[in-house]
Amino acid sequence: MKNISKLIMIIFMTFLILPYKGFADSQKIIYKIDVNGEVNKGMYHYIKESIDKANKENADYIIFDIDTYGGRVDSAVDISDAIIEQDIPTVAYINKKAESAGVLISISCDHIYMNNYSTIGSAETIPNTEKNISYWTSQLKAVAEQKGRDTEIVAAMADKDIIIKGLVNKGKLLNLTTKKADEIKFIDGIASSMKKIYTDLNIDNYVQKDADVNMMSIFRNIITSTYIAPLLLSLGFIGMILEILTPGFGIGGIISITGFSLFFLGSIYTGNSTTTTVFVFGIGIVLLVIEAMAPGFGIFGTIGIGSIIFSIIMASNNMLQAFLSILVSLIVSVVALIFILKKLPKRKMYKTLFLDTKLDAEKGYIPSKDNRIYLNKEGITISYLRPSGKIDIDGEILDVITEGIFIKVGEKVKVVKVESNKIIVRHIKEELV
Hints:
Elements: H1 2-25, E1 28-39, H2 41-56, E2 61-71, H3 73-84, E3 90-99, H4 101-107, E4 111-114, E5 119-121, H5 130-146, H6 151-156, E6 175-177, H7 178-183, E7 189-190, H8 194-200, E8 206-210, H9 215-223, H10 229-245, H11 251-270, H12 275-293, H13 299-315, H14 319-343, H15 349-354, E9 378-381, E10 388-393, E11 396-402, E12 412-419, E13 422-427
Parallel strand pairs: 1-2, 1-8, 2-3, 3-4, 3-5, 4-7, 11-13
Antiparallel strand pairs: 5-6, 9-10, 9-12, 10-11, 12-13
Helix pairs in contact: 2-3, 2-9, 3-4, 10-11, 10-14, 12-13, 13-14
């Protein structure tokens, strides 16, 4: 009797579990990857790594949540190739906008859905030369043809010379709204949420997994951004200016090394820089340092600046980007230099940069030599004061520092302040009324 009872219980439990087992086996895995911000090499690495992870987890669908103004053409092509190579069905969900490079990413997917009030189009290259437009348009048309989409509509998004009656006139780039894209059957449908997409694809039982955005991906995306590159260059030059103006190695040198290192690291990630590029830049910096130690401005400074400019061009995606990077960094650096030389000494930060610690004898400090004997004495500069340098007072050579200004060799100066071993001088001309 006991055996019969056990058998009945086993049969009962089997029938009870089977539906749930079938439910678990039929559950679809949907892997969601965000495509937000600038399309660059950082985004490519993130998407490629996420696609590989989706494959390892045996995902049934990969959905790309797209909201981008575009970015680099080469990165968009790499991302497109990575998507097309997949055996896993792919879905593009244009949440807000898929402009420029975002167009190629979107049409590379097997399905395209757009949220209400989204847009897709305006995919002209920068610079918009005939060669660039021809290459980019051919890429768009090839992918559109492979995915069964209208090639002329896609081409009109990149080429202003293409006319499509009722859609776009000559001289204009095609940009489709959600309603228009659905009306001409360019997309698979309109979806106010991803759940609507899953319903449309007859996916009833699913689990959605979001691709991880780790700190390395964020860091890589930032330093490869075409908008961040000029700022990193500016940081490098500003730090270099600070280091030249202050004695010893300090915060300026750290800032400079950090800025330049991140700039070239980002360029290496994008595939633009090599060790040769970094070497040329390093030669330029060394030559500028040599020039800074010599009076006047000569061949070392000229070659140094030329080497730096050439290395920046080598590290950029194109001449336009190189020009913008140099222009922005130059403007920011000049503004910073003016601020450092004229404003900084009046602020608290000056104490950090120029060591404002007072070792007064009244407080118990006994310096090796009481420099107060030079107070109000006049001398002649025997080196450039940038702002530190050397002067001659009655045949005695002294290390001094100005109040932040640059003073040439052979100029008269006056000691206006003494703080322990620090002797501060002022150009005598400044005291004339």
